[in-house]
């Protein structure tokens, strides 16, 4: 059976597909189909106030989702698409309000994964695709993370292997005065503003109105076990005194611990750390420990800033 044809037919019947991207696996539905989009919210247990990213296979398909397309957006799209950058712009009239949580803007991107592009091309129109996990839990970065969560008759799963990026895309609002980072990712705000040729505006968490983007709503990316951040070895040792823990080591510096504790080594470079973080958090969840202790990365740079942002949100309870 042609897996893309099967997934396409399922989507056109209003069904859901777990779709690999270079960042994380997404739970896809046809963006124009408000009922199907509603099934995404229902399946994930996602609050209706949290908008979705619309995925397109081409720049032209993405532009069709937007009411306007400024020069800055065009420069960014041509430089970074396909890839882990989401642009927030005024939404086109056809975009259902459920996609944008009732807000006036839409988040769009072109993913960099051959299966995602093949599916989008076969469907011929944009898809929403939030992370394919129950809302608030650690995002899936492998097909094994996805299978077993969704019943086959409800969700068709495309096996795209392990995600090469591992963190969700940078979300950038393109505004009249400049660009604003709404969610950190591997692409940094300074680099993006330089390419756009406009000022980088201060980040904001959103006011009392509809959220403009995913990644703005409080606690997220959370394992089932409590996760704590330790900025020093002494802090890590203090947590170990409170019962069995699974420790994610500082980047490139394995930490030796005695039973009943367990230690998981983490890579030294930012890209590898980001790619492995969610899988490590999921493995730690299955360790039998009482909590997860993460030795906080202290290095600087866009990737490390994004990693720390995810870890801070994972600690919130």
Summarize this structure as a short list of keywords or feature phrases:
10 helices, ten-stranded mixed beta sheet, 30% helix, four-stranded parallel beta sheet, 317 residues
Tell me about this structure:
- By secondary structure, the chain is of the alpha/beta class.
- It has two domains: 3-201, Alpha-Beta Complex (DHBP synthase); 227-315, no CATH class.
- The protein is built from ten helices and 14 strands.
- The strands form two sheets. Strands 7-1-2-6-3-5-4-8-9-10 form a ten-stranded mixed beta sheet, sandwiched between helices. Strands 11-14-12-13 form a four-stranded parallel beta sheet.
Structural topology:
Elements: H1 3-12, E1 16-19, E2 26-30, H2 34-44, E3 53-55, H3 59-63, H4 71-80, E4 85-90, E5 105-109, H5 114-123, E6 127-128, H6 143-146, E7 155-157, E8 170-175, E9 178-183, H7 189-196, E10 200-201, E11 227-230, H8 233-240, E12 245-248, E13 262-264, H9 270-285, E14 291-295, H10 302-315
Parallel strand pairs: 1-7, 3-5, 4-8, 9-10, 11-14, 12-13, 12-14
Antiparallel strand pairs: 1-2, 2-6, 3-6, 4-5, 8-9
Helix pairs in contact: 1-5, 9-10
């Amino acid at each position: 059976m042609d897996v893309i044809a099967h997934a396409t037919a399922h989507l056109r019947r209003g069904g859901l597909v777990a779709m690999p991207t270079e960042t994380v696996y997404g739970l896809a539905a046809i963006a124009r189909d408000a009922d199907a989009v509603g099934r995404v919210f229902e399946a994930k247990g996602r609050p209706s106030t949290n908008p979705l990213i619309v995925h397109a296979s081409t720049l032209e398909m993405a532009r069709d989702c937007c009411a306007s397309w400024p020069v800055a957006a065009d420069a960014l799209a041509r430089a970074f698409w396909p890839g882990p950058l989401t642009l927030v712009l005024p939404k086109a009239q056809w975009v259902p309000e459920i996609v944008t949580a009732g807000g006036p803007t839409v988040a769009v991107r072109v993913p960099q994964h051959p299966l995602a592009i093949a599916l989008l091309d076969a469907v011929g129109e944009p898809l929403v695709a939030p992370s394919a996990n129950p809302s608030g839990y650690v995002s899936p970065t492998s097909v094994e993370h996805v299978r077993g969560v969704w019943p086959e008759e409800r969700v068709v799963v495309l096996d795209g292997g392990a995600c090469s990026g591992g963190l969700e895309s940078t979300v950038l609002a393109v505004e009249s005065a400049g660009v604003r980072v709404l969610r950190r990712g591997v692409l940094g705000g300074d680099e993006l503003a330089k390419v756009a040729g406009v000022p980088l505006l201060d980040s904001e968490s959103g006011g009392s109105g509809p959220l403009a983007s995913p990644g703005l709503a409080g606690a997220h990316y959370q394992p089932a076990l409590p996760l704590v951040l330790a900025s020093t070895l002494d802090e890590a040792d203090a947590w170990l005194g409170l019962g069995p823990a699974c420790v994610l080591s500082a980047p490139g510096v394995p930490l030796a611990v005695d039973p009943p504790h367990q230690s998981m080594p983490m890579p030294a470079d930012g890209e590898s750390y980001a790619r492995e973080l969610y899988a490590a958090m999921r493995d730690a969840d299955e360790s039998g420990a009482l909590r997860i202790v993460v030795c906080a990365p202290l290095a600087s740079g866009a990737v490390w800033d994004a990693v720390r942002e995810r870890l801070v949100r994972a600690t919130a309870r």
